[in-house]
Design a protein that fits this description.
Elements: H1 3-29, E1 36-38, E2 41-43, E3 50-51, E4 55-62, H2 85-102, E5 106-113, H3 124-132, E6 136-148, E7 157-167, E8 173-179, H4 187-192, E9 197-203, E10 205-206, E11 212-218, H5 228-241, E12 249-254, H6 280-287, E13 289-290, E14 317-322, E15 325-332, E16 345-351
Parallel strand pairs: 3-10, 4-5, 11-12
Antiparallel strand pairs: 1-8, 2-6, 4-16, 5-7, 6-7, 8-9, 9-11, 12-14, 13-14, 15-16
Helix pairs in contact: 2-3
Length: about 375
């Protein structure tokens, strides 16, 4: 055999062996969550149950893993992968300040980095918990890998990103992680990719037979109409349908779906991300209540801002409610457009029957008279 050919053959064999070793390592370290897993609940300090008839404030927010809006990331057509540490610290502090200012009783957060190379392995969860003044939390991961090799020119590396449920004073109990359907993609890609999930928990309600059921999620992006979103929405429906009739519940998150009637074509090339043959949100919003009711297409309720946009151009984030819950007020906090590519959704809700109006005084009896 010619020496050059021999060296080439040795090189090819070595490369194949190296790739095989990397695949084996990926398989051994892959995050493989069970279909349903218990999630630890942590509470620090005194807790107070929610009360029937009293308003509660909630907030749902995809915080874009504290990455700031200064960079156009590779998955959005840019080049950025890792974020300068000063930008991470500035952004996480801004998020914590926004959470403190709003003072929500219940927070449902998405894209919380805890041990990711791209954000300098800063554990963001405690920063947001402190900012919110929360006493209880439940956290679960939905993207964990010791090394993500893409993009090939600048690998993402270690990543650990999750969902976070927080309560400011109410106790949390019975938290669970429900695994959602995976993208229809090669198995080797799935090893490194996101394992989307639904994080659920319960909050006791004083004077009500059922606890408040909470759920937060972040459905798949870039599914390209492969049916994944329909499967994931079916799993959300299964959770909602399993709630007892007299149980109030809240399900919030980034669904990566446009509201019915919104034309993906108006988003030009970005509209390709929403090309499911049938939009799963059509049936979902027909059967369940969103905090914005029929105002899904109102520009003031849009939540997502592409890179470089000063205003949101679409709604892909939702807060669904069910059972004995009254929506008193709901809005998108547009003043936080400089923090994340998603805007926070907030609402004031009332659990249980609304307080009865005071009885009018009898004729001839002054108000307040015994």
């Amino acid at each position: 055999m010619h020496p050059a050919l021999k060296y080439l053959l040795v090189g090819v064999v070595g490369l194949v062996a190296l790739l095989g070793l990397l695949v084996l390592l990926a398989a051994l370290t892959e995050h493989r969550p069970d279909p349903v897993e218990p999630v630890a609940v942590s509470c620090e300090g005194a807790t107070t149950p929610l009360k029937v008839g009293e308003p509660i404030k909630i907030l749902s927010w995809n915080v874009q893993y504290g990455a700031s809006r200064k960079h156009q990331f590779f998955y959005d057509g840019g080049q950025a992968v890792h974020v300068p540490i000063e930008d991470v610290k500035e952004t996480t502090a801004a998020i914590a300040s926004a959470l403190s200012a709003y003072g929500a009783d219940v927070l449902l957060l998405q894209e919380i980095d805890s041990d990711s190379a791209r954000t300098h392995r800063i554990n963001q969860g405690p920063i947001y918990k402190k900012g919110a003044g929360a006493v209880c939390e439940a956290v679960t991961t939905y993207h964990r890998s010791p090394f993500v090799p893409s993009p090939t020119t600048n690998p993402l590396g270690r990543v650990d990103m999750g969902l976070q449920l927080l309560t400011r004073s109410a106790p949390l109990a019975k938290a669970e992680r429900i695994q959602l359907a995976l993208l229809d993609e090669p198995r080797i890609v799935q090893m490194f990719n996101l394992k989307r999930a639904l994080l659920t928990a319960e909050v006791p309600i004083e004077g009500w037979p059922q606890p408040l059921a909470l759920a937060v999620t972040h459905l798949s992006a870039f599914s390209k109409g492969d049916g994944t979103l329909a499967k994931q929405v079916a799993q959300l429906r299964a959770w909602m349908d399993a709630r007892p009739k007299d149980q109030p519940w809240i399900l919030a998150g980034d669904f990566n779906l446009l509201p019915p009637g919104d034309d993906p074509g108006r988003l030009a090339a970005e509209g390709d991300a929403y090309r499911d043959p049938v939009n799963p949100m059509e049936a979902l919003l027909k059967d369940y209540r969103d905090i914005f009711g029929d105002a899904q297409l109102d520009p003031m309720n849009r939540t997502y801002l592409p890179f470089g946009f000063p205003e949101p151009d679409r709604k892909i984030d939702y807060v669904l409610v069910g059972g004995p819950i009254e929506v008193i007020e709901a809005k998108v906090l547009r003043e936080h457009a400089a923090i994340s590519d998603h805007l926070p959704l907030v609402a004031t809700l009332r659990i249980g029957p609304a307080p009865a109006p005071p009885e009018p005084p009898a004729e001839g009896v002054p108000p307040g008279a015994p």
